[in-house]
Write a structure and sequence with these properties.
The chain has 16 helices and twelve strands. Helix 10 links the parallel strand 1 and strand 2. The radius of gyration is 24 Å and the shape is globular.
Length: 500
Protein backbone atom coordinates (compact mmCIF):
# COMPACT_ATOMS: atom_id res chain seq x y z
CA UNK A 1 0.00 0.00 0.00
CA UNK A 2 1.33 3.51 -0.78
CA UNK A 3 2.64 5.15 2.38
CA UNK A 4 0.18 8.06 2.10
CA UNK A 5 -2.72 5.63 2.56
CA UNK A 6 -1.37 4.18 5.79
CA UNK A 7 -2.72 7.03 7.96
CA UNK A 8 -6.13 6.73 6.30
CA UNK A 9 -6.22 2.98 6.86
CA UNK A 10 -5.18 3.51 10.48
CA UNK A 11 -7.92 6.10 11.03
CA UNK A 12 -10.54 3.74 9.60
CA UNK A 13 -9.39 0.96 11.92
CA UNK A 14 -9.54 3.30 14.91
CA UNK A 15 -13.09 4.27 13.93
CA UNK A 16 -14.15 0.61 13.70
CA UNK A 17 -12.64 0.01 17.13
CA UNK A 18 -14.78 2.79 18.65
CA UNK A 19 -18.00 1.70 16.95
CA UNK A 20 -17.54 -1.85 18.22
CA UNK A 21 -17.91 -0.51 21.76
CA UNK A 22 -20.12 2.53 21.19
CA UNK A 23 -23.11 1.37 23.20
CA UNK A 24 -25.99 1.80 22.65
CA UNK A 25 -25.33 0.65 19.12
CA UNK A 26 -27.34 1.40 16.03
CA UNK A 27 -28.98 -1.08 13.63
CA UNK A 28 -30.80 -2.79 16.47
CA UNK A 29 -27.62 -3.92 18.18
CA UNK A 30 -26.03 -5.57 15.13
CA UNK A 31 -23.23 -3.06 14.74
CA UNK A 32 -21.31 -3.90 17.92
CA UNK A 33 -20.87 -7.66 17.38
CA UNK A 34 -20.29 -7.25 13.63
CA UNK A 35 -17.46 -4.74 14.13
CA UNK A 36 -16.04 -6.68 17.07
CA UNK A 37 -15.51 -9.53 14.60
CA UNK A 38 -14.32 -7.27 11.79
CA UNK A 39 -11.68 -5.24 13.66
CA UNK A 40 -9.26 -8.10 14.52
CA UNK A 41 -9.57 -9.40 10.96
CA UNK A 42 -8.65 -6.08 9.35
CA UNK A 43 -5.99 -5.24 11.92
CA UNK A 44 -4.19 -8.57 11.55
CA UNK A 45 -4.65 -8.85 7.79
CA UNK A 46 -2.53 -5.77 7.14
CA UNK A 47 0.02 -6.86 9.74
CA UNK A 48 0.35 -10.33 8.21
CA UNK A 49 0.74 -8.82 4.73
CA UNK A 50 3.63 -6.61 5.77
CA UNK A 51 2.14 -3.44 7.27
CA UNK A 52 4.70 -1.97 9.68
CA UNK A 53 3.85 -2.97 13.23
CA UNK A 54 3.87 0.67 14.34
CA UNK A 55 0.76 1.37 12.26
CA UNK A 56 -1.02 -1.50 13.99
CA UNK A 57 -0.14 -0.03 17.38
CA UNK A 58 -1.28 3.46 16.30
CA UNK A 59 -4.64 2.09 15.11
CA UNK A 60 -5.32 0.49 18.50
CA UNK A 61 -4.11 3.56 20.36
CA UNK A 62 -6.27 5.85 18.23
CA UNK A 63 -9.34 3.75 18.92
CA UNK A 64 -8.74 3.82 22.66
CA UNK A 65 -8.13 7.57 22.73
CA UNK A 66 -11.40 8.14 20.87
CA UNK A 67 -13.21 5.79 23.24
CA UNK A 68 -11.70 7.47 26.34
CA UNK A 69 -12.21 11.05 25.15
CA UNK A 70 -14.44 11.72 28.17
CA UNK A 71 -11.73 10.82 30.70
CA UNK A 72 -9.68 14.08 30.78
CA UNK A 73 -12.70 16.26 31.54
CA UNK A 74 -13.82 13.83 34.24
CA UNK A 75 -10.40 13.76 35.89
CA UNK A 76 -10.17 17.55 35.73
CA UNK A 77 -13.67 18.46 36.91
CA UNK A 78 -14.30 15.65 39.40
CA UNK A 79 -10.78 14.57 40.34
CA UNK A 80 -9.35 18.05 40.80
CA UNK A 81 -6.42 17.47 38.46
CA UNK A 82 -5.05 20.19 36.16
CA UNK A 83 -6.43 19.55 32.68
CA UNK A 84 -2.97 18.98 31.20
CA UNK A 85 -2.23 16.32 33.81
CA UNK A 86 -5.64 14.75 33.18
CA UNK A 87 -4.84 14.51 29.46
CA UNK A 88 -1.48 12.95 30.28
CA UNK A 89 -3.18 10.35 32.49
CA UNK A 90 -5.59 9.47 29.70
CA UNK A 91 -2.76 9.10 27.20
CA UNK A 92 -0.79 6.86 29.58
CA UNK A 93 -3.87 4.70 30.20
CA UNK A 94 -4.45 4.34 26.46
CA UNK A 95 -0.78 3.63 25.76
CA UNK A 96 -0.81 0.79 28.27
CA UNK A 97 -3.99 -0.83 26.99
CA UNK A 98 -2.96 -0.35 23.34
CA UNK A 99 0.40 -1.99 23.96
CA UNK A 100 -1.28 -5.03 25.49
CA UNK A 101 -3.48 -5.60 22.44
CA UNK A 102 -0.54 -4.80 20.16
CA UNK A 103 1.50 -7.59 21.76
CA UNK A 104 -1.42 -9.95 21.15
CA UNK A 105 -1.32 -8.97 17.46
CA UNK A 106 2.48 -9.41 17.25
CA UNK A 107 2.26 -12.82 18.89
CA UNK A 108 -0.34 -13.89 16.34
CA UNK A 109 1.89 -12.66 13.48
CA UNK A 110 4.81 -14.66 14.86
CA UNK A 111 2.63 -17.79 14.98
CA UNK A 112 1.33 -17.16 11.45
CA UNK A 113 4.85 -17.11 10.03
CA UNK A 114 5.81 -20.34 11.76
CA UNK A 115 2.59 -22.32 12.27
CA UNK A 116 0.16 -21.06 9.65
CA UNK A 117 -3.41 -19.87 9.96
CA UNK A 118 -4.48 -22.23 12.75
CA UNK A 119 -1.44 -21.33 14.81
CA UNK A 120 -2.14 -17.62 14.36
CA UNK A 121 -5.73 -18.14 15.49
CA UNK A 122 -4.80 -20.17 18.58
CA UNK A 123 -2.05 -17.81 19.69
CA UNK A 124 -4.23 -14.71 19.21
CA UNK A 125 -6.99 -16.30 21.28
CA UNK A 126 -4.58 -17.55 23.95
CA UNK A 127 -2.74 -14.24 24.37
CA UNK A 128 -5.96 -12.26 24.48
CA UNK A 129 -7.34 -14.52 27.20
CA UNK A 130 -4.18 -13.97 29.21
CA UNK A 131 -4.17 -10.19 28.69
CA UNK A 132 -7.81 -9.74 29.65
CA UNK A 133 -7.62 -12.03 32.65
CA UNK A 134 -4.23 -11.27 34.19
CA UNK A 135 -2.97 -8.03 32.68
CA UNK A 136 -3.12 -4.95 34.89
CA UNK A 137 -6.11 -2.77 33.97
CA UNK A 138 -7.22 0.53 35.45
CA UNK A 139 -10.58 0.02 33.75
CA UNK A 140 -11.11 -3.73 33.29
CA UNK A 141 -12.92 -4.62 30.09
CA UNK A 142 -13.47 -7.55 27.76
CA UNK A 143 -13.60 -7.58 23.98
CA UNK A 144 -16.39 -10.15 24.10
CA UNK A 145 -18.73 -7.69 25.84
CA UNK A 146 -19.73 -6.39 22.40
CA UNK A 147 -21.60 -9.65 21.76
CA UNK A 148 -24.01 -8.81 24.58
CA UNK A 149 -25.76 -6.39 22.22
CA UNK A 150 -27.95 -9.22 20.87
CA UNK A 151 -29.66 -11.89 23.01
CA UNK A 152 -28.62 -14.88 20.90
CA UNK A 153 -24.83 -14.38 21.00
CA UNK A 154 -25.16 -13.07 24.57
CA UNK A 155 -26.51 -16.46 25.64
CA UNK A 156 -23.37 -18.14 24.30
CA UNK A 157 -21.54 -16.44 27.18
CA UNK A 158 -23.24 -19.01 29.41
CA UNK A 159 -20.82 -21.55 27.88
CA UNK A 160 -17.74 -19.48 26.99
CA UNK A 161 -17.86 -16.45 29.28
CA UNK A 162 -17.10 -12.94 28.04
CA UNK A 163 -13.38 -13.70 27.72
CA UNK A 164 -14.14 -16.85 25.76
CA UNK A 165 -16.09 -14.71 23.30
CA UNK A 166 -13.11 -12.34 23.14
CA UNK A 167 -10.84 -15.23 22.23
CA UNK A 168 -13.33 -16.50 19.65
CA UNK A 169 -13.47 -13.10 17.91
CA UNK A 170 -9.70 -12.66 17.75
CA UNK A 171 -9.09 -16.28 16.80
CA UNK A 172 -11.59 -16.02 13.95
CA UNK A 173 -10.06 -12.73 12.81
CA UNK A 174 -6.55 -14.18 12.85
CA UNK A 175 -7.64 -17.21 10.80
CA UNK A 176 -9.29 -15.04 8.14
CA UNK A 177 -6.37 -12.58 8.09
CA UNK A 178 -3.87 -15.41 7.64
CA UNK A 179 -5.95 -16.95 4.88
CA UNK A 180 -6.09 -13.62 3.04
CA UNK A 181 -2.35 -13.17 3.44
CA UNK A 182 -1.76 -16.64 2.02
CA UNK A 183 -4.08 -16.01 -0.93
CA UNK A 184 -6.43 -18.79 0.14
CA UNK A 185 -9.88 -19.30 -1.33
CA UNK A 186 -12.84 -17.25 -0.13
CA UNK A 187 -14.41 -20.37 1.33
CA UNK A 188 -11.35 -21.08 3.47
CA UNK A 189 -11.02 -17.44 4.46
CA UNK A 190 -14.61 -17.25 5.70
CA UNK A 191 -14.32 -20.52 7.59
CA UNK A 192 -12.95 -18.75 10.69
CA UNK A 193 -15.64 -16.04 11.03
CA UNK A 194 -18.25 -18.59 9.94
CA UNK A 195 -17.15 -20.93 12.72
CA UNK A 196 -17.34 -18.10 15.28
CA UNK A 197 -20.83 -17.02 14.22
CA UNK A 198 -22.04 -20.60 13.91
CA UNK A 199 -20.70 -21.53 17.35
CA UNK A 200 -22.40 -18.54 18.97
CA UNK A 201 -25.68 -19.42 17.27
CA UNK A 202 -25.36 -23.06 18.30
CA UNK A 203 -24.55 -22.24 21.91
CA UNK A 204 -27.27 -19.59 21.98
CA UNK A 205 -29.74 -22.33 21.09
CA UNK A 206 -28.18 -24.88 23.47
CA UNK A 207 -28.83 -22.39 26.29
CA UNK A 208 -32.48 -23.45 26.26
CA UNK A 209 -31.40 -27.00 27.16
CA UNK A 210 -29.48 -26.01 30.30
CA UNK A 211 -30.93 -27.15 33.67
CA UNK A 212 -32.88 -24.59 35.65
CA UNK A 213 -33.81 -24.00 39.25
CA UNK A 214 -37.24 -23.30 40.68
CA UNK A 215 -39.04 -20.15 39.59
CA UNK A 216 -38.38 -17.04 41.68
CA UNK A 217 -40.41 -13.85 41.82
CA UNK A 218 -39.57 -10.46 43.31
CA UNK A 219 -40.91 -6.92 43.16
CA UNK A 220 -38.00 -4.52 42.72
CA UNK A 221 -38.07 -0.76 43.29
CA UNK A 222 -35.06 1.38 42.26
CA UNK A 223 -34.41 5.02 43.03
CA UNK A 224 -32.11 7.08 40.80
CA UNK A 225 -31.81 10.41 42.65
CA UNK A 226 -29.34 12.35 40.46
CA UNK A 227 -27.39 13.50 43.51
CA UNK A 228 -24.10 15.34 42.80
CA UNK A 229 -21.27 12.81 42.75
CA UNK A 230 -19.27 12.65 45.97
CA UNK A 231 -21.15 15.48 47.72
CA UNK A 232 -22.10 14.82 51.36
CA UNK A 233 -25.07 16.71 52.73
CA UNK A 234 -27.59 16.27 55.56
CA UNK A 235 -30.88 14.76 54.60
CA UNK A 236 -29.70 12.36 51.90
CA UNK A 237 -31.47 9.40 53.50
CA UNK A 238 -34.65 11.39 54.15
CA UNK A 239 -34.77 12.51 50.52
CA UNK A 240 -34.25 8.95 49.30
CA UNK A 241 -37.07 7.73 51.54
CA UNK A 242 -39.36 10.49 50.25
CA UNK A 243 -38.82 9.30 46.68
CA UNK A 244 -39.09 5.63 47.65
CA UNK A 245 -42.36 6.07 49.51
CA UNK A 246 -43.89 7.87 46.55
CA UNK A 247 -42.97 4.99 44.22
CA UNK A 248 -44.16 2.29 46.63
CA UNK A 249 -47.45 4.09 47.15
CA UNK A 250 -48.00 4.53 43.43
CA UNK A 251 -47.43 0.80 42.85
CA UNK A 252 -49.36 -0.39 45.89
CA UNK A 253 -46.30 -2.24 47.19
CA UNK A 254 -45.57 -4.29 49.17
CA UNK A 255 -48.38 -6.60 48.14
CA UNK A 256 -49.63 -9.88 49.52
CA UNK A 257 -47.71 -12.99 48.50
CA UNK A 258 -44.69 -11.14 47.07
CA UNK A 259 -41.57 -9.66 48.61
CA UNK A 260 -40.33 -6.17 47.69
CA UNK A 261 -36.64 -5.29 47.33
CA UNK A 262 -35.78 -1.59 47.47
CA UNK A 263 -32.47 -0.74 45.79
CA UNK A 264 -30.55 2.49 46.23
CA UNK A 265 -27.35 3.14 44.25
CA UNK A 266 -23.76 3.52 45.34
CA UNK A 267 -23.15 6.68 47.42
CA UNK A 268 -26.85 7.32 47.99
CA UNK A 269 -26.03 8.00 51.66
CA UNK A 270 -22.73 9.71 52.50
CA UNK A 271 -21.24 11.46 55.49
CA UNK A 272 -21.71 8.79 58.15
CA UNK A 273 -20.22 5.46 59.20
CA UNK A 274 -22.68 2.64 58.45
CA UNK A 275 -20.50 -0.27 59.53
CA UNK A 276 -21.96 -0.73 63.00
CA UNK A 277 -25.31 -1.97 64.32
CA UNK A 278 -28.19 0.49 64.10
CA UNK A 279 -31.69 -0.60 65.15
CA UNK A 280 -33.21 2.47 63.49
CA UNK A 281 -32.16 1.30 60.02
CA UNK A 282 -33.79 -2.07 60.49
CA UNK A 283 -36.94 -0.33 61.71
CA UNK A 284 -36.99 1.90 58.61
CA UNK A 285 -37.17 -1.16 56.36
CA UNK A 286 -39.61 -3.02 58.62
CA UNK A 287 -42.04 -0.10 58.87
CA UNK A 288 -42.34 -0.03 55.08
CA UNK A 289 -42.45 -3.80 54.63
CA UNK A 290 -39.45 -3.94 52.28
CA UNK A 291 -35.99 -5.44 52.13
CA UNK A 292 -33.64 -2.48 51.68
CA UNK A 293 -30.20 -2.61 50.04
CA UNK A 294 -28.37 0.70 49.68
CA UNK A 295 -24.98 2.23 48.94
CA UNK A 296 -23.22 4.03 51.78
CA UNK A 297 -19.77 4.31 53.39
CA UNK A 298 -17.89 3.62 56.59
CA UNK A 299 -14.34 4.60 57.49
CA UNK A 300 -12.06 3.79 54.54
CA UNK A 301 -14.63 1.47 52.92
CA UNK A 302 -17.15 1.84 50.12
CA UNK A 303 -20.17 -0.10 51.40
CA UNK A 304 -23.55 -1.50 50.65
CA UNK A 305 -25.81 -2.27 53.56
CA UNK A 306 -28.92 -4.41 53.64
CA UNK A 307 -31.78 -4.31 56.14
CA UNK A 308 -34.79 -6.60 56.48
CA UNK A 309 -37.25 -7.04 59.33
CA UNK A 310 -36.05 -9.45 62.01
CA UNK A 311 -32.66 -9.98 60.38
CA UNK A 312 -29.16 -8.79 61.30
CA UNK A 313 -27.77 -6.06 59.10
CA UNK A 314 -25.86 -7.10 55.99
CA UNK A 315 -22.71 -4.98 55.52
CA UNK A 316 -20.44 -5.56 52.53
CA UNK A 317 -17.40 -3.51 51.45
CA UNK A 318 -16.14 -3.17 47.90
CA UNK A 319 -13.46 -5.80 47.43
CA UNK A 320 -11.83 -4.42 44.25
CA UNK A 321 -11.36 -0.63 44.52
CA UNK A 322 -10.55 0.83 41.10
CA UNK A 323 -6.79 1.50 40.71
CA UNK A 324 -5.93 5.21 40.90
CA UNK A 325 -9.61 6.16 41.06
CA UNK A 326 -10.26 4.68 44.52
CA UNK A 327 -7.01 3.08 45.63
CA UNK A 328 -3.38 3.59 44.68
CA UNK A 329 -2.06 0.23 43.44
CA UNK A 330 1.21 -1.32 44.54
CA UNK A 331 2.94 -2.12 47.86
CA UNK A 332 1.73 -0.48 51.06
CA UNK A 333 4.81 1.74 51.44
CA UNK A 334 4.46 3.05 47.89
CA UNK A 335 0.73 3.62 48.42
CA UNK A 336 1.26 5.67 51.58
CA UNK A 337 4.00 7.75 49.93
CA UNK A 338 2.01 8.49 46.77
CA UNK A 339 -1.22 9.18 48.70
CA UNK A 340 0.67 11.70 50.83
CA UNK A 341 2.21 13.42 47.81
CA UNK A 342 -1.10 13.66 45.94
CA UNK A 343 -3.34 14.37 48.91
CA UNK A 344 -5.30 11.20 48.15
CA UNK A 345 -6.76 8.69 50.60
CA UNK A 346 -6.90 5.15 49.26
CA UNK A 347 -9.95 3.08 50.04
CA UNK A 348 -9.42 -0.20 51.82
CA UNK A 349 -10.49 -3.40 50.08
CA UNK A 350 -13.24 -5.47 51.66
CA UNK A 351 -13.14 -9.23 52.02
CA UNK A 352 -14.91 -11.65 49.72
CA UNK A 353 -16.02 -14.50 51.95
CA UNK A 354 -18.69 -17.11 52.58
CA UNK A 355 -22.18 -15.69 52.90
CA UNK A 356 -21.53 -12.45 50.96
CA UNK A 357 -25.16 -12.06 49.88
CA UNK A 358 -28.12 -10.15 51.27
CA UNK A 359 -31.00 -12.48 52.22
CA UNK A 360 -34.41 -11.16 51.16
CA UNK A 361 -37.27 -12.92 53.00
CA UNK A 362 -39.93 -14.11 50.54
CA UNK A 363 -42.97 -16.39 50.88
CA UNK A 364 -40.97 -19.09 49.05
CA UNK A 365 -37.92 -18.75 51.33
CA UNK A 366 -34.90 -16.50 51.38
CA UNK A 367 -33.73 -15.04 48.08
CA UNK A 368 -30.02 -14.18 48.16
CA UNK A 369 -28.70 -11.09 46.36
CA UNK A 370 -24.96 -10.67 45.78
CA UNK A 371 -24.05 -6.97 45.39
CA UNK A 372 -21.38 -5.64 43.03
CA UNK A 373 -20.16 -2.12 43.72
CA UNK A 374 -19.68 -0.19 40.49
CA UNK A 375 -16.53 -1.41 38.69
CA UNK A 376 -16.60 -4.84 40.41
CA UNK A 377 -19.24 -5.89 37.88
CA UNK A 378 -16.64 -5.46 35.13
CA UNK A 379 -14.69 -8.44 36.50
CA UNK A 380 -16.10 -11.84 35.45
CA UNK A 381 -13.90 -13.79 37.87
CA UNK A 382 -14.68 -11.54 40.82
CA UNK A 383 -18.40 -11.72 40.04
CA UNK A 384 -18.34 -15.51 39.79
CA UNK A 385 -16.48 -15.93 43.11
CA UNK A 386 -18.88 -13.64 44.94
CA UNK A 387 -21.86 -15.39 43.36
CA UNK A 388 -20.60 -18.78 44.53
CA UNK A 389 -19.58 -17.69 48.03
CA UNK A 390 -22.90 -15.94 48.52
CA UNK A 391 -24.89 -18.86 47.04
CA UNK A 392 -26.76 -16.12 45.23
CA UNK A 393 -30.02 -16.20 43.30
CA UNK A 394 -29.65 -12.67 41.93
CA UNK A 395 -27.01 -9.99 41.28
CA UNK A 396 -27.21 -6.25 41.95
CA UNK A 397 -24.89 -3.50 40.73
CA UNK A 398 -24.79 -0.26 42.73
CA UNK A 399 -23.11 2.47 40.69
CA UNK A 400 -22.21 6.12 41.20
CA UNK A 401 -21.95 7.27 37.60
CA UNK A 402 -22.40 10.94 38.43
CA UNK A 403 -18.64 11.37 37.98
CA UNK A 404 -19.04 11.05 34.22
CA UNK A 405 -21.49 13.92 33.54
CA UNK A 406 -23.30 13.32 30.22
CA UNK A 407 -20.48 11.37 28.59
CA UNK A 408 -20.72 7.89 27.08
CA UNK A 409 -19.07 6.42 30.19
CA UNK A 410 -22.29 5.23 31.80
CA UNK A 411 -23.23 3.41 28.56
CA UNK A 412 -19.77 1.86 28.29
CA UNK A 413 -20.09 0.59 31.83
CA UNK A 414 -23.51 -0.90 31.11
CA UNK A 415 -22.21 -2.58 27.94
CA UNK A 416 -19.28 -4.13 29.77
CA UNK A 417 -21.30 -5.62 32.65
CA UNK A 418 -24.32 -6.97 30.75
CA UNK A 419 -22.82 -10.43 30.12
CA UNK A 420 -22.56 -11.14 33.87
CA UNK A 421 -26.25 -12.12 33.76
CA UNK A 422 -26.09 -14.83 31.02
CA UNK A 423 -22.69 -16.00 32.32
CA UNK A 424 -24.12 -16.90 35.72
CA UNK A 425 -27.70 -17.53 34.64
CA UNK A 426 -29.42 -14.98 36.89
CA UNK A 427 -30.66 -11.39 36.40
CA UNK A 428 -28.44 -8.41 37.21
CA UNK A 429 -30.18 -5.34 38.62
CA UNK A 430 -28.41 -2.05 37.92
CA UNK A 431 -29.10 0.89 40.28
CA UNK A 432 -27.27 4.08 39.30
CA UNK A 433 -26.97 7.44 41.05
CA UNK A 434 -27.53 9.61 37.97
CA UNK A 435 -27.46 7.56 34.79
CA UNK A 436 -29.25 4.61 33.27
CA UNK A 437 -30.64 2.17 35.80
CA UNK A 438 -32.08 -1.07 34.50
CA UNK A 439 -31.99 -4.85 34.44
CA UNK A 440 -29.97 -7.40 32.48
CA UNK A 441 -31.79 -10.71 32.13
CA UNK A 442 -30.24 -14.15 32.16
CA UNK A 443 -31.47 -14.78 28.58
CA UNK A 444 -29.46 -11.86 27.14
CA UNK A 445 -32.27 -9.29 26.97
CA UNK A 446 -31.88 -6.03 28.86
CA UNK A 447 -33.68 -2.81 29.71
CA UNK A 448 -32.13 0.56 30.60
CA UNK A 449 -34.14 3.58 31.72
CA UNK A 450 -33.51 7.30 31.72
CA UNK A 451 -30.53 9.31 30.53
CA UNK A 452 -27.25 10.46 32.10
CA UNK A 453 -27.75 13.12 34.80
CA UNK A 454 -31.43 12.35 35.22
CA UNK A 455 -33.54 11.28 38.17
CA UNK A 456 -36.07 8.50 38.19
CA UNK A 457 -37.99 5.96 40.22
CA UNK A 458 -38.44 2.56 38.60
CA UNK A 459 -40.46 -0.53 39.44
CA UNK A 460 -39.94 -4.01 38.05
CA UNK A 461 -41.89 -7.24 38.55
CA UNK A 462 -39.07 -9.76 38.23
CA UNK A 463 -39.65 -13.42 37.43
CA UNK A 464 -36.91 -15.92 36.55
CA UNK A 465 -35.54 -19.42 36.91
CA UNK A 466 -31.80 -19.52 37.65
CA UNK A 467 -29.90 -21.26 34.85
CA UNK A 468 -27.02 -23.58 35.78
CA UNK A 469 -24.42 -22.45 33.26
CA UNK A 470 -21.01 -23.94 32.42
CA UNK A 471 -19.55 -20.44 32.84
CA UNK A 472 -20.11 -20.76 36.59
CA UNK A 473 -17.19 -23.19 36.69
CA UNK A 474 -13.82 -21.90 37.90
CA UNK A 475 -12.21 -24.29 35.41
CA UNK A 476 -13.66 -22.68 32.30
CA UNK A 477 -10.88 -20.14 31.72
CA UNK A 478 -7.98 -22.48 32.56
CA UNK A 479 -9.59 -25.14 30.38
CA UNK A 480 -9.88 -22.81 27.39
CA UNK A 481 -6.28 -21.68 27.79
CA UNK A 482 -4.99 -25.22 28.23
CA UNK A 483 -6.80 -26.35 25.08
CA UNK A 484 -5.42 -23.48 23.00
CA UNK A 485 -1.91 -24.03 24.36
CA UNK A 486 -2.11 -27.76 23.58
CA UNK A 487 -3.15 -27.13 19.97
CA UNK A 488 -0.36 -24.59 19.55
CA UNK A 489 2.26 -26.97 20.94
CA UNK A 490 0.99 -29.77 18.71
CA UNK A 491 1.28 -27.53 15.65
CA UNK A 492 4.79 -26.53 16.71
CA UNK A 493 5.80 -30.16 17.13
CA UNK A 494 4.47 -31.05 13.69
CA UNK A 495 6.51 -28.35 11.94
CA UNK A 496 9.76 -29.11 13.75
CA UNK A 497 12.49 -30.27 11.35
CA UNK A 498 12.91 -34.04 11.36
CA UNK A 499 16.27 -35.77 11.51
CA UNK A 500 17.25 -37.78 8.44
Amino acid sequence: MPSLLRPLETAVLAGIFVLAFRFPGVLGGWLEPALALLFPLLLLEGLFKGRHAVWTWVAILGGLLLLYQWVPQTLASKGGLPFGLAVLGTVLLSLWEATGLWLVALGSRWAFRRLGALGAACVAALLLLGWESWGFHVYPWTWGAAFGALPWPARSAAFLGASGLSALAWGAGAWAAASLAEGASLRRTLAGPGFAVGLMLLLGGAWFLLPRGVERTLDVAMIQPNFPAGVRWPGMEAEMWRRSEALLKARGWPRAGRATLLLWPESSILGRDDRGPDARLSAEAASRGVAWLFGTEGGPYNLVRGEAAGRPAFVFAKTEPMPFGERTPGPEAFRRWLDEKMGFVSQEAGELKEGCAFAVPTPAGDLRVHPLLCSEALLPGRTRRGFELGRADLLSNHTNDGWFDRSIATDLHAAQIRLRAPELGVPLLRATLTGKSGVFHEDGHFELWGEPLSEGAYALELQWRPVRTPARSAWLLPGLMAGLAAITLLLGWKVLPRKA
